[in-house]
Amino acid sequence: MNKYEIGVNAGKIWHLLKDNVRWSYQELKEASGLSDRDLNAAIGWLAREDKIDFQTNSGDDHLFLSVNVYIG
């Protein structure tokens, strides 16, 4: 795994999340076809770029896109 592959995988996850639906980790894993290792790296990439948020309901985490709007 290298930074390029992680970035490509992050793009795959971003495209899945762009429908504004909250996805569980397992749903993302199945839809993306990524291994745990690759999915976790992609999620980390998107989190570091502040592009996703996490929501926990009854112990079940969901991921969704973070919309950051800056008015300058």
Quick summary of this structure?
This protein is an alpha+beta fold and 72 residues long. Helix content is 50%, strand content 19%. The longest helix has 15 residues, at 3-17.
Would you kindly provide a written description of the structure presented here, covering whatever features stand out?
This protein is of the alpha+beta class and 72 residues long. Helix content is 50%, strand content 19%. It is built from three helices and three strands, in the order H-E-H-H-E-E. The longest helix is centred in the first third of the chain and has 15 residues, at 3-17. It is globular, with a radius of gyration of 12 Å. The termini are far apart.
Our measurement of the CA-to-CA distance between the termini, rounded to an integer number of angstroms, reads: 38 Å
Provide the helix percentage.
40-55%
Mean pLDDT, all residues: 85
Largest sheet: 3 strands, antiparallel
What topology, given as strand order, has the largest sheet? Answer: 1-3-2
Strand content: 15-25%
Backbone shape: globular
Structural class call reads alpha+beta
- If you compute it from the alpha carbons, what radius of gyration comes out, rounded to the nearest whole angstrom? 12 Å
Number of strands: 3
Order of helices and strands: HEHHEE
Helix tally equals 3
Poorly predicted sequence stretches spanning 5 or more consecutive residues: none
